[in-house]
Amino acid sequence: MGGVNRRILTLVVALVPIVAFGLLLSVVTVPFVALGPGPTFNTLGEIDGKQVVDIKSTDGVAGKITHPTSGHLNMTTVSQRDGLTLGQALVLWMSGRDQLIPRELVYPPDKSKDDIDKGNTADFKRSEDDAEYAALSYLKYPKAVTVETVEDKGPSAGKLQPGDAIDMVNNVEVADLKAFQDVVKNTKTGEQIVIDYRRKNAPAGTATITLGEHPEGKQGYLGVGVLDAPWAMFDIEFNLANIGGPSAGLMFSLAVVDKLTTGELNDGKFVAGTGTIDAEGKVGSIGGITHKMLAAREAGATVFLVPADNCAEAASAHQDGLQLVKVDTLTTAVDALNTISAGGEPPTC
């Protein structure tokens, strides 16, 4: 009987570290974030019944201004997993598909996760605006003094809207931002001014606005943010929600250009890519290029647009069957796709 008890005791002693290690794997979290291939979205397609890039004239009809498209112009993303247990981290690391990086590189200690997520969302919205401006600028739409933001409860709330083009202030034509500022700087608090504007979703109109007190000067305060930007009568809406960061900008711009011009930029091929874009059409570098390339290849892409500054890293990650095309502006991206369609060789990484 004593021998049996000793065997049981030996078994229990042997199992203790195994159980403890199992608990360690399943309970203890690690200060790492896993990055890997994320979903891709066709900017020429639909999501939840809506066009990802939706272009409509003021009467709500797209067909009057857009042209047929086909194939793919896919934006790519990086998946991100936080709060990993030791076991999950080991499994992801051994898979070879995911990269573990210190959490502080993604979520700096001096910022809350909520603040970072809000910043990413703001960056994404900024990229949508810049993608629109870059595409319209490429297509030679004329610039106007454009309302970008309207302060809640400010003097212009309910009278001007984001997207309005300001043509005149107190019967003085304002062809650009400097002309607008020259007129406004000579106003004062409490003064009423009359603004003539064009609006994308309504007839042109005028607004009489009583100026508030300027927080930084003696001039009157309109409570709007304005900029010089190319302007068109139609609406451009981007219907991808909760995709943080600015790296979809290039592919959004290409979709706008493709829909507003005859022919097909991709020649019916499966094109994917990534890259930030500014309002002038300059393409900027992004993070996670190798993860995005893998996601694109697995989705079926054969051509991948790479920001010039990411080319060295992209070329080091061999993805068979994926042609890496080097781009640094919206113009070079369009030219490269046209070259491919014509059977030529575009700039590559």
From TrEMBL:
<feature type="domain" description="Lon proteolytic">
    <location>
        <begin position="242"/>
        <end position="340"/>
    </location>
</feature>
<feature type="transmembrane region" description="Helical">
    <location>
        <begin position="12"/>
        <end position="34"/>
    </location>
</feature>
<feature type="active site">
    <location>
        <position position="292"/>
    </location>
</feature>
<dbReference type="Pfam" id="PF05362">
    <property type="entry name" value="Lon_C"/>
</dbReference>
<dbReference type="Pfam" id="PF13180">
    <property type="entry name" value="PDZ_2"/>
</dbReference>
<keyword id="KW-0812">Transmembrane</keyword>
<keyword id="KW-0378">Hydrolase</keyword>
<dbReference type="GO" id="GO:0005524">
    <property type="term" value="F:ATP binding"/>
</dbReference>
<dbReference type="GO" id="GO:0004252">
    <property type="term" value="F:serine-type endopeptidase activity"/>
</dbReference>
<dbReference type="InterPro" id="IPR014721">
    <property type="entry name" value="Ribsml_uS5_D2-typ_fold_subgr"/>
</dbReference>
<keyword id="KW-0720">Serine protease</keyword>
<dbReference type="GO" id="GO:0006508">
    <property type="term" value="P:proteolysis"/>
</dbReference>
<dbReference type="InterPro" id="IPR020568">
    <property type="entry name" value="Ribosomal_Su5_D2-typ_SF"/>
</dbReference>
<dbReference type="GO" id="GO:0004176">
    <property type="term" value="F:ATP-dependent peptidase activity"/>
</dbReference>
<dbReference type="InterPro" id="IPR036034">
    <property type="entry name" value="PDZ_sf"/>
</dbReference>
<keyword id="KW-1133">Transmembrane helix</keyword>
<dbReference type="InterPro" id="IPR001478">
    <property type="entry name" value="PDZ"/>
</dbReference>
<keyword id="KW-0472">Membrane</keyword>
<dbReference type="InterPro" id="IPR027065">
    <property type="entry name" value="Lon_Prtase"/>
</dbReference>
<protein>
    <recommendedName>
        <fullName>endopeptidase La</fullName>
        <ecNumber>3.4.21.53</ecNumber>
    </recommendedName>
</protein>
<dbReference type="GO" id="GO:0030163">
    <property type="term" value="P:protein catabolic process"/>
</dbReference>
<comment type="similarity">
    <text>Belongs to the peptidase S16 family.</text>
</comment>
<dbReference type="InterPro" id="IPR008269">
    <property type="entry name" value="Lon_proteolytic"/>
</dbReference>
<feature type="active site">
    <location>
        <position position="247"/>
    </location>
</feature>
<keyword id="KW-0645">Protease</keyword>
